[in-house]
Amino acid sequence: MKGGDYFIAKTDRYAVFSKKWMSNILNFISKDKKMAKCKTCNGKGNVDCPICKGKGRTDRLLGGSNQCKNCNGSGKVKCSVCNGKGVI
Ligand SMILES: [Zn+2]
Ligand SMILES: [Zn+2]
C-alpha cells in the first residue's frame, strides 16, 4: 500500500502546515490588536466627561454641591470604545 502511505504523509504535512499558518495568522492579529491605539481616548483609556466636559462640575446648580455625578467630580470617564484599556 505504497500509494496509501504517501497520501497519509501528504495529508499530515498539510495539517502541520495549516496549523502553523493558523498560528501565524493569530499571532499577526493579536500583535495588530496590541498596537492599535484607541483613537477615541488617544490611548489614555479615559475621555473627558461629556456631561461636565472634563471640569468635574456642572453649572446646573446654583450653590451647594454641583459635582458632576457622571464622573464623580473627576472630569474623566472610562472610554467606552476601548473599555478603559487605551487599545483596541
Ligand atoms: Zn463629569
Ligand atoms: Zn479608548
TrEMBL record:
Name this polypeptide is given: CR-type domain-containing protein
UniProt organism field: Desulfosarcina ovata subsp. sediminis
